[in-house]
Amino acid sequence: MMSDAPCDIAVIGGGLAGAAAAFHLAHLGFSVTLLERESGAHQKVCGEFLSPESASYLSELGIDLLQLGAAPIHEIRLTAGDAVAHARVEKSAWGLSRYALDAHCLTRAAAMGAQIMQNACVTNYTFDAEKKIYTIHTATKKYIARKIIVATGKHDLRAAQIRQGRERHAIGLKMHLRLTPQNFSALSDHIWMGFFRGGYVGLSCIENQRANCCLIIDKARYKNIPHDALTLLRYVAQHVPQLSDLLQDAQPIDSHPIAVANIPYGYIHHTLHTTSHIAPHAPYYVGDQCAVIPSLTGTGMTIALATARAAALDLRATHDGAPRRYENQCAQLVRHRMRIAYPIHRLSQSGWPATACVHTLKIFPQLLRRGIVATRFPGV
To answer: Is the dihedral of CA 35, 36, 41, 43 positive or negative?
Structure first.
């Protein structure tokens, strides 16, 4: 079955980047169809840390994080072995589940006029050079669009080439927890990042008096650990002693964590390396389809929001006859930050060198603040 009429732009993927892109495009006057594979908002593997820069982009979407119940974060604490370092966040950061955030972003996109099509799992798309239109294929229907934005996050279309980052052996795991009232109060207002050989973990408060525990671990180590949530919590408490008290008597919301495999950390889309050879009709890749920065930077959701906004503005500019500049803009932002973030990501999993590094950051906290700034995307 074919869609009735072509839209200006089809957005493939209804996560944070896709919903933000659909919102901005609809606000700019384009007819937009967003195609989301799931039937509704769902949990995703994510640290669920919204930096002040992310909050500035969300405010453009009319989203009030405090009204959504997000937990404020004013301090970042790092630990490895017996070492602890910390730094204040100059402006409020926030903890909010992806379930709540993505659902609200889709609602805002629909309110702005975007057509949201759920249960629309895109398998591939084709471009007719003569008619200058895309045909987007799902299991039950075909959609026609003049331009497309690919915002499928860490998932790839079945017909897509496997993305290769600088590694593909990281497993991402996420658990929502009920902490004891005393421990929830002790965790509030800050986020812990704990480093151990072969991985790292983030722990912070989110809405509804819950905490989010997100773990990045090497695939080889994960194979030797039972995959239930309670065992993983014991593993975290054993390898990150500074978190053991906070996790005492913690109760996972679900018996098993949600997981994502083969995260291509260090990935940058090839169009950001060949910015002078981009065809005018080429897809726009946003969010994790544009670049996959290591999770410890807390920059992933900012990249999703920033690239979604940049793609929408570039589509508006090219519609008015200006040259395409999206890839050039993204390349300038991504390359420098990735060069800094990826070595930090590798160092954080190195064991005693990571402990020595955290000891150094405790003595020179200004280095921690500089590292945070150097890996963050600018806000609006």
So the answer is: negative
